[in-house]
Design goal:
The protein is of the alpha/beta class. The protein contains 14 helices and 13 strands. The protein has 2 domains: 115 residues, Enolase-like, N-terminal domain (Enolase-like, domain 1, 2-Layer Sandwich), CATH 3.30.390.10; 228 residues, TIM Barrel. Helices cover 36% and strands 19% of the residues. A hairpin with a 6-residue loop joins strand 1 and strand 2. The structure holds 2-succinylbenzoate (OSB) and magnesium ion. The site of magnesium ion has 6 residues, from loops. Its EC number is 4.2.1.113.
Length: 383
Amino acid sequence: MIDDDPRGESPVRAMRHRSFALDLIRPLGTARGAIRRREGFLIAVERGSDGDSAGGDRGGAVGLGEATPLPGWTESREACAAALDGVGGQGGSESPLEVLDAASTPAARHGISLALADAAARDAGARLADRLADAAGVTATPADAVPVNATVGDGSPDETAAEARRAVDSGFDCLKLKVGARDVDADIERVRAVREAIGDAVSLRADANGAWDRETARRALDALAAFDLAYVEQPLPADDLDGLAALRERGPTDGAGGAVRIAVDESVAARGVDAVLDADAADAVVLKPMALGGPDRALAAALRAQRAGVDPVVTTTIDAVVARTAAVHVAAATPDVPPCGLATGSLLDEDLASDPCPIADGQIAVPTGPGLAGGAFEDLRRW
Ligand SMILES: O=C(O)CCC(=O)c1ccccc1C(=O)O
Ligand SMILES: [Mg+2]
C-alpha cells in the first residue's frame, strides 16, 4: 500500500471494540487509594482503502489499540465507552480523531489513535516507534531498549524495603516509591529503610500523588533531601502550579543539601503539558499516553518538554499489554529518555496476551515491527 498517510488519519473502514477487566496481583497502594483492577477496551480497526486502489474495496492491515481509562487521569469508563460507541456509528466518512476530544476523552482517543497508527505502521512495514519519530520530526533513530524504573507501592517500612531490594536484585537501578498514603514521619522512615536496603548506587524517586499541602510538602522535601532522591513526583495537588514552582525555586535548606527536584504527573493530566511548562512548575513531566490522548500527542509533549529543558518520563496508567507496548514505542522515539515508568506489566495478575517487551538490567526491549510488535498480538486481531 502506498504510504501517503503517515499519521494514520484516513477514515476507518471497520472498527470494533470489546471490554476487558484485569486484576492486579495485589493492590498498588497510593495516596489516592489502592488500584486493584483495570477495566478497559481493546480496539481493532481497519483503515479505509486508498483512493487509488482500483478494486475500491481493498482494506489495509488490522491495527490494534487500547483504551483503559483511569479517573483522575482520564475520563470515566462510561464516558470512554460512549465515545468509542460514537466512533463506531460514524459511518467512516471522516477521521475519528477529529471527533474525539483529547481533553475530555483522552483514553478513547488514545485507543483509536493507536489502532490507526498501528495499522498504518503495519501497512508501511515499519516499527511504530519509527513512524512516531518520523511524524514528529525526530531525526535520531529510536532506541532498541529504554531504561525503566520499578514501581513500589505503599506498605510498612519492612515490606517496602523488601520489595525495593527484590527489584534491585532483579536488575533495576531506578525505583519509584509511592508515598503520601501515611503521615510524613512514617514515609520518611520508609524512604530511610529503602535507601538502607538498596545502597547509594540505585536511583530513587518518590511519588506523593498530590497528597500534601504546601507546608507538609516543604517539611517532607526538607527531610527527604537526606536520602538523595532523583525527584519527588506530584508533591502538591494537580492545580497548584504556583506552589510547585515555588517548591522548585526554594534553595538548599540548612545543611540538608540541594533542593529536591520536582516531577509532575496529575498536573499534566489536569492542565496540559504547556501550562506546566509555562508555569515553570516542574523539572520533569510524567507523560501517560493514555491521559494525553494518544502516543503521537505524548511524543509531541515529550519533545516540547525537552525543548524547555524539562525531562519527559513516559509511563502507563497500569495498562494492558497493547497500551504498555505503545508507551514503550513513545519512550523509544524520545531522544535520551530518562528511566520511564513502563515496568508495570508485572503488577497485573493476567493480561490480554503475552508481553513482547522483556525487561533485563533495568531496560525494557522495544519490539521490532511492523507496527506495535510484529506478529505478537495475532490472536487479538481476530475475535
Ligand atoms: O510511574 C510508574 O512507575 C508506574 C505508573 C504509576 O505509578 C501510576 C500508575 C497508575 C496511576 C498513576 C500512577 C502514577 O504515576 O501516579
Ligand atoms: Mg504519578
